[in-house]
Structure formats: C-alpha cells, structure tokens
Design goal:
By secondary structure, the protein is mainly α. 56% of the residues lie in helices and 4% in strands. Strand 1, helix 2 and strand 2 form a beta-alpha-beta unit.
Length: 148
Amino acid sequence: MASIVDEAVNGSIDAPWDAIARRVVGWAETASLPLRDVVVLVPFLQLLAPARRAFAAVGTWMPRVETTRTLAAATAPALPRGSGELGWGFAHDTLLAMQMLSHQPWVADWPRRDPRGFAQAAARVVAVAEELMTAAGSMPPADRADWW
C-alpha cells in the first residue's frame, strides 16, 4: 500500500497535504466520524498552514489541525495565577489596581475625595497593563526581559 505522501506527484509543499486531507476525510467518512471531532497532529508548527489550507480546499468541515504543543496549550488547564497578578477578569483586575494604587503615598485621600475618578484611573491602569502584556507576548521570549 502506498503512503499518503507518495500520492503527491507535482513536488509542491501543498501537494502532500492535498492527498493527506482527502485521505483523512475519506477515513472519517468510513469510520462515521464527524470531521469536527477529528484531530490531525502535524510534527512542526510550520506545517499547520499548508495542512489547514489543504483541508479548507476539500470543502468540508475542517478537522482540528494541531501540533502537540498547540494542542496541549489549547486543552491544558490554565496556569494558576499568583496573588496580585492580572488576568482574573477586568472587574477583578480593576479592584486589584485600586488596592495597589491606594497604598501609594501620592494617592492620599483621592479614593475618598473622588471615588469615580479614582475608579476610572484604576481601570486605565488595567487597560495599559493589558496592552503591555499583549505587546510583550508578541515578542520572542528571549527579548522580553530586556524589553520590560
């Protein structure tokens, strides 16, 4: 029996994926599995795009195409957050910011004098912190410490 990759003859990077996509779709139909429940694992991150293009070209529901790392990240439980860390949700993060800001000497009686303004300032602190975390997350891990 020929392997799936042997079916590709034109030598382009997408050709093996076209054959693989057709074979997986055929297998799922034979096994009476809905494609939405099928997970196709590829060995490298760089293969996600050509594999997904091939499955999209078949014109059926696309199975989940993942690497072991992306699948683990998508299905693993979230890492626990430490006390005082952002990411619990906007309302909770705003309360944390209000608490941290109220301990600063320059804040003094601002929360009592102008509670609405203080809450808006804390919400803005949270928004800026989230923007900074997003920007840091888009950088290569090796460069993040210097950026911060």
